[in-house]
Amino acid sequence: MRRARLQKRARLLKAAEFNRVFNKARRSADQYFTVLARPNDKDLPRLGLAISKKRVTLAVTRNRIKRVIREGFRHKQHGLFCADYVVMAGHQCSKTNNRRLFRSLEKHWQKLNKLCAKS
Length: 119
What we know:
Elements: H1 15-23, E1 26-29, E2 33-39, E3 46-50, H2 59-76, E4 83-89, H3 98-118
Parallel strand pairs: 3-4
Antiparallel strand pairs: 1-2, 2-4
């Protein structure tokens, strides 16, 4: 059985794409994540990850957090506004379980979906 993947066209890959989001973004933050969003002119929402070694020191933990973020985004991407989203790790991100991370991301997606739809 093949696992579903986040398509390459649904990712932010270039520094210019990240900088565009960082310059003028809607923001949602809690102790686990800071999520930035900026509406795009594409036909789908796109995801970028900025999980730093400074916040999450162990590579194993960084990779787990990235998997959780990608999976949460993949499940919700069809209901999201067409925007570019960048997820950054918060202080408590590495010290909690996957269920709490999913719940946190769900709240961020809902909040930013409303903010991006208004503009």
